[in-house]
Design goal:
Elements (H helix, E strand, L loop, with lengths): L2 H12 L4 H8 L3 H9 L7 H10 L4 H5 L1
Helix pairs in contact: 2-3, 2-4
Length: 65
């Protein structure tokens, strides 16, 4: 599992959000969140990461480090 996948899952679970709820908050497809967490999308776009980070009230740096 990539750092992005691990960090995203940890941040999402800390906030008590489902993948579907996070996707809605971030205005991205649910499938996008699922694929990133599963490690199937190892190189999400910066725009996608920004939207997800904003929805999780964190930084892109925290998601990718």
């Amino acid at each position: 599992m990539s750092n992005i996948a691990k960090n995203l899952r940890k941040a999402r679970e800390t906030k008590g959000l489902s993948q579907e709820k996070l996707a809605r908050l971030a205005d991205v497809a649910n499938n996008t969140v699922v694929k990133i967490e599963a490690g199937k999308n190892k190189n999400p776009t910066l725009n996608t990461l920004k939207k997800i980070a904003k929805a999780l009230e964190t930084s892109v740096d925290n998601l990718i480090s």
